## 1
Amino acid sequence: MSAGTVAVVVAGEISLPSWDLYELSIPCTVFGKRQPDIHDPWYDLRLCSTGEEPGEEPGEDAPAVARLALRTGYGLDGLAGADTVIVPSVPDACVEDGSPLPPRLIGALRDAHDAGARMVSLCTGAFALAEAGLLDGRRATAHWMHTGQLAARYPKVRVDDSVLYVDEGDVLTSAGLTAGLDLCLHLVRRDLGAHVANQLARRMVVPAHRHGGQAQFVDLSVPVTDDEGLGPVLDWARAHLDRPLTVADLARRAAMSPRTFYRRLQRATGTTPLQWLLNQRLGRAQALLESTDLPVERIGELSGLGTANNLRHHFVKQVGVAPSDYRRSFSRTA
C-alpha cells in the first residue's frame, strides 16, 4: 500500500517562457520518484489533464512564447479516489484577464473535495480552488504578485500575502515558485514524519524546512545563509541544546554584541534568535520522539525545553499535536 495517491492537474498546454513547467515539476519530483531507501512504499502519482486542446502554433511575430502540449495518463476522472489533489497553476489569462476556468475542472475539484481528498494549490492554482468555493472563509495565499487579484475576485477568501504557505488541514495553498516545494515537503512531513522529509530534502539539496507562517512541523535543518561567521556558533548551539542558552551566550561565543548578533541571525535565517533556538529544540524533540523510547520528561531535558509540561505546551502550539500523539504517528522504534 502506497503512502497515498497524489493527483496533479495538468493544463492541456503550457506556455513558455513561464513558471508553469517549474511548478508542475515540483510535485512530480517530490511525489513521483520512488524512494525505497527512505520510505517504502512511496506515493502513487497521477498526472491528470484538463483535456484542453492545444492552441494555434505561435507565429514568427511571437518569439517570446512557445507552447508545449503534454500527454498524460489520466483525464480529470483521475482526481476521483485520490488522497491529495494538487493544482500547480492556472493559465495566465485566467489570472490577468479573468478568463473562465474550465467548468469540468471546477466540478472535478469540488467532487474530489467532497469525497475527502486533501486539496492543494501552488501559486496561481489558488484561483482554481477559489473558483470551486473551496477557499471560502479560509485563509489562503498565492504569489504576492497575484494576491491582490485573488482577494479582489474572491472576497470570501482571507488572502494572506505575507506567508510562504498556509495549512488549513484539508486545504493547503502556497506562494509561487520555491514556496511550492516548501509546501510539498511539508505534506511529506505531515504524512511520513520529519525524518523522511529531511532525508528527501537532503537528497534534493534543498532546506528541509522553511517557516510557512503558521503552526507546522519543524526540523534541525541548517539555515540558508552566506554569513560564514554564524556557522560555527549555530553548530555549537545545536550541539548544546540541553543547556539554558541565551542570546547573550550565543553573541558572546560569536564575538559580537547581542544587537549585532540579533540583526545578522535574523537576516540570515528570517527569524529571531529566540525563535531559532525554539525551532531547534522542537526539532531535537521530534527526532528523539521518532527514534527513541525515552520518556517525555527526559526528552524535555535533552532538547532544552525543560519540564514535560513545557515540552507539551510548545509542541502543541508549534507542531499542532501532543508529543505522545506525534510519537504514535512517526516513531521508528514502535
Note: The longest helix spans residues 273-291.
## 2
Amino acid sequence: MDLPVMPPVKPMLAKSVAKIPPGMLYEAKWDGFRAVVHRDGGETVIGSRTGKPLTRYFPELVAQLEAQLPPRCVVDGEIILIRGDHLDFDALTERIHPADSRVRLLAEQTPASFVAFDLLALGELDLMPVPQRERRAALAEVLETVEPPLYLAPATLDPEEARRWFDQFEGAGLDGVIAKPLDAAYAPDQRVMFKIKHERTADCVVAGYREHKSGPIVGSLLLGLYDATGRLQHVGVCASFPMKRREELVAELAPLRMDPAAGHPWAEWADEEAQASSRMPGATSRWTGTKDLSWVPLRPERVIEVAYDHMQGDRFRHTTQFRRWRPDREPASCTYGQLDEPVGYDLADILGRASGASDAGGS
C-alpha cells in the first residue's frame, strides 16, 4: 500500500456542547464503529478509532468497499448494522469475534453497512489540509453513485434542519448531531468538531461499585432498574466523580457492603445461565473475552439521579453522569417505566437523504 495518507490514522474527534452552533456543516451522529478506510487497488485496510485494524471482522464490507470506492482513497466513516428500520449496536458488537468461521457466518447473517462522511485522500492528493467544505464536496462527487451497503452521510448547512434531525433521528437509533467547522482541516485525534447529544435523567438504584484502577477507591457505581417482573437489572455505570469524592464514597457506602453477596439481586453474577436470563455485572466481555471480577456488592437501598443520552436495548448506551442523590425516592420505584421512549423513525428515510444533501459541502 502506497497512499498519500497511510494507516493507521486516528480519526478527528468532537467535543460535547449543549446547543447546535451556527455556521457549520451538520450531520447525524451515527451509533456504530468509527472506521477509517484505506484503499489502494486490491488492498484495503479498515482502521478503528484507536488505529487497530477491523478489516478481518467485516469481509463483506471489504468486498463492497473495493467494488465501489475510488481505486486509491482514504475515507472516514462509520460501520453500522441495520436491523429493520433501526441501528442495532448490540448485533454490531457481536461481529467482533476471534474465530474466523464465526466471522464468516455473521458476515452472512448480520451484514454491516458503511456510512462515509469525510475524504482524507484521493489518488495522489492528501486532502487532510483542505477545508472541510471542499472535502465534503469531493466526497459527494466520488460517492455520487454509491449503493447500499455503502452510503454517503446526509449533511446540511441549515441549522434549523439540523435541529429537526436532532429531534427526529433518535427514533432510528442515532444519538445526536455532529457540527463541523467549514474551514477546518482534518486534525487526527483532535476534538475539532462538536457533538450535540440527547440528555435525559433517570433515578437508579446503586447496587454495587467497581474500584478505581488507581487503588481501593470508587471507580464507578453500578446502576440498576427494576423490570416488570420485579427483578433488578444491571443497566450501566456512573463514573463522573473527582478523586477526592471517590475516596469519600468508599466510607459513605461501607455500611451497605454485602460480604458475602448472598441475598444480593446479582449474587449469581458468575453463573453463565443466570447471565443469559438477566443483566448483571461481570458478564464476559465481547472485546477481551474475560470477566470483570472486581465489583463490590451493596445492599440496593440508595438511589441516585443520573443523566444519560439514550438506551441500547435495556441498558444505558454510554457511561451516565451523576446529578444528585435521591433520598426521597424508594429503590422499588426505580423502574424502566420512568424512561423516555424516542419517537420511531425509519432509518431508510435518513439514509435516503444523502443524495439530496450532497451539495452541502460545496456551498
Note: The mean pLDDT is 89.
